[in-house]
Amino acid sequence: MPLETTSPLPQHRRHGSSAGQPLTRRDGVLKVTGRATYAADNHPDGILYAVTAVSSIARGRVTALDVEAAKAHPGVVEVLTPANRPPLAHDPDEKMPPFGFRVEVLQDDTVRYVNQPIAIVIAETLEAATEGAALLNPVYEVEPARTDLESGKRFDPEGIGIGAPARTAHGDIEAGLAAAVRVTEADYVTPPQYHNAMEPHAVVAQWDGDRVTIDMPNQTLALSCASYAAYFGIPAENVLIRSPFLGGGFGSKAILNGPQILAILAARMLNRPVKLALTRAQMYGPVGHRGRTWQKLRLGVDEEGRLTALHHQALCTTSSFDEFLEPAANASLPLYASPAILAEHEGLRLDVGTPGPMRAPGLASGSAALEVAMDEAAEACGMDPLDFRLANYAETEPVTGKPFSSKALRECYAEGAKRFGWSGRPLAPRTMRDENGFLIGWGMGTAVFHCPHFPAEARATLRADGTALMETAGADMGQGAWTALAQIAAEALGLDPDQVELHSGISSLPDGGIAGGSGHTASAGLALHNAGEDAIARLAELATNDPASPLFGAGNIGVVARSGRLHRRDDESRGESYAEILARAGRSDVVGTAKTARDPAVASAHAMYSHGAVFAEVKVDPDLGQIRVARLVGAFAAGRIINPRLVRSQYFGGMIWGASFALHEEAIADRRTGRIMNADLAEYHVPVNADVPSLDAILIPEDDPHVNPIGVKGVGEIGITGTVGAIANAVWHATGVRVRRFPVRVEDLLISREFA
Amino acid sequence: MGYHMSLSISLTINGLKREIALDDPRVTLLDLLRERLHLTGTKKGCDRGQCGACTVLVDGRRINSCLALAASLDGAEITTIEGLADGEDLHPVQAAFIAHDGFQCGYCTPGQIMSAVGLISEGNAGDDPERIRELMSGNICRCGAYQGITEAVLEAQKDLAERNRRDAA
To answer: What CATH number belongs to A402-453+598-756?
Structure first.
């Protein structure tokens, strides 16, 4: 079988700009030769290795640790426990503003979840530190683990996600349900999931007096500097974080965690550089996860198949001591028109590490339930699932009534359906088989993700040789920031990307904002764009004020920057190169700066989202119930596309995460102990190459004049949304079995009466 | 430090023969490469042989270096990601990974590439993408760059076969 081809990469319509072109990654050679340095690749002289000892119980107290045995092991230098841990300047039981979490840094002997650090062993070698940690042989006073709905404590949260209200209402939900000719109601369950970036959380810390240099993968450089400064009682400018490469983040490297703080503290205490890298198993606890949810959806529908009510309730887990509630029910707010919408959240406290944002927080879990519920409602109405969604297409944001800044979702539906071949789909399930007798099913789902914009700063330096240096403290965790940001920078400067050096990934540069929320390219990109324009304006001022320049006096007419030259706007034959302008002015460079944020007036007037439609084909073994995704086609509209090659890879990655959510991922806790029984990459299933089918991602053109001046929306997370539901719906269409618990498993089919 | 022992082994790493005094019998090949020899291109993702990020070639075979004790490899010939390119000339597999965007964060990439080089020399995949997907499934990519990886392996395999034909002619 030949390799399925994917959509050709569209060339952007702008001419003379590298933005929009499918350039390969600027860091490609470094990454394929092993020369890209991730945090744990650093080896400062005199380095020590730290290994955390972690709790094997979910709740209780550590009553004894055999520190003597650990210290007696050759090579062990120090053991930190609550008895000798140096003080911190910020109380770890207090949240760190603006959205830091409480952290476990040996402040006392209590255990609040499995894999919580209970000591940290520092040694001359990794082997000695590992053995030392094993020799601590902890003794516990164990309290029963609260691991599920029965044992956990329910509560009404003050907020969900990061500061969103727990309840959002539009219209009268009961009146809407009463007016419906048909109400579908169902319960859905999503499991705990762990980010499992390939690179474990690592840190190499070295102190020089009250200054610290930290090599670590980090999605929020400026915020993290401020937080570490608060913990260590030093000014933020004394913290330097170097994060040139992140081995994946997915949200788990956006928030400070206990083990990394402890390693930095140990480096200070011992006055030597310290390296720590979590083991894979230790990543199932202190570094966040996607919390489990139980969701209920009630959809009221009128005779034409239009929603009269959309009620989405979510019960979401958090830890016993802090709150991050997956804003799952809010997935029902932006997508489908209904006179009544109600999204409500309740919390459930378990003895687990605090959840956190994980790729498409809220929307991944919530869209999984919503898109299956929409499929069930379409089925109840006897309507095609795509027609049903079109009948409920929102022309304005359903809850607020605001216009969308742009919304090419109709085009996504149409193009995706066409590429997939959706129009031939029979309504009834269990009607298609392949040549080997496997059941075939087709399903679809709508994808959506919001477009946040973070404050960011940048600096542009045009140099005497006609090249430029662009600087902003951003983070590339694989999304391709170094490449896309350089393209934006080059465009703003009228240069080729090869002439632009981009410095990023280190906290001493201007704050590049947060690499998360699918908002990094827009946020750091706008700062670079504006800094570049500022530099060009300063250069133009030099030229237009210089009688020796062909641009003299053109200040009011304006100049255009292109290919390293400034031209008169009204007469492009008159111009000169940047190098000539700088040379005549006797300048070695000209520097532009920018500080950007979203215009609040534009933000309050518009609803801003990326949209998409995902179509899935699954094949199910009629005897064994084994499910394979055979095809996924996604069509996405996300404003202006800076680099279609990288964007397509982001969509593919998101769609694979969707397949993973639908069919693979789940952390399973032992109800007796709270221990995660599959805390490794063999038992916690993430897709491998053989699990991934033919993928196609279509880039739907979309001009957005409002979202930000560069027209860029986000692409990093949207691919998960829609895909989960599309696959689950395809499983129903193949088998007639409606599974409402994720991931969908073989046994869910085998025990079903419809399957037999 | 360690156990006050020293065990001397001889390894040929990327063509260079080295006598190595092991300070500790517990050292894996992965930790030897990364923490002692500072060949950090080879990555640790799980330390359990489950993710493939640490894949290197030992005597031409791809293995998980986290599961091999260095002391057991006396006399072995080892190729890591650092030894693949010829100066600035990338190996065809490396070039194909860039061209097909066969990676995002890059952390699993050295392992993927070494695994692909091993796979191609095993000669079992042919030009069947399904076989390649199956035989590359010991290397997890959490970013989900699998489509590009599969395309890259196919292209590099073709490229290498053509070179071999040219060389033979």
So the answer is: 3.30.365.10
